[in-house]
Amino acid sequence: MKQFFVYLMASRRNGTLHAGVTSDMERRAWEHREGAVAGFTKEHGVKRLVWFQAFDDAESAIRREKQIKKWNRDWKKRLIEESNPDWHDLYPGLLGRPQGGSPPARG
Description:
Elements: E1 4-10, E2 17-22, H1 25-34, H2 40-43, E3 48-55, H3 58-70, H4 73-83, H5 91-94
Antiparallel strand pairs: 1-2, 1-3
């Protein structure tokens, strides 16, 4: 079953925030990290995945993204800190590596 994700990216702890929605969290986080797509996140160095939530359908994910985009900054920070108090980059976990882990060895 296909999943959809709402996510928050940050430039750093308490830095610039960006909310988005995607059906491929790993690819989308990589695009932000690498600056592969021109726009707000590339211009502001928003590269750290700090929060995400999975949904079974696109409509629910889009509805949640719109809700979060309307929130004030303090509410977004609280949402992040409920599950990620130190604002760790969650991207390595998407790849099956622990936070701060090194890339898998290539054989």
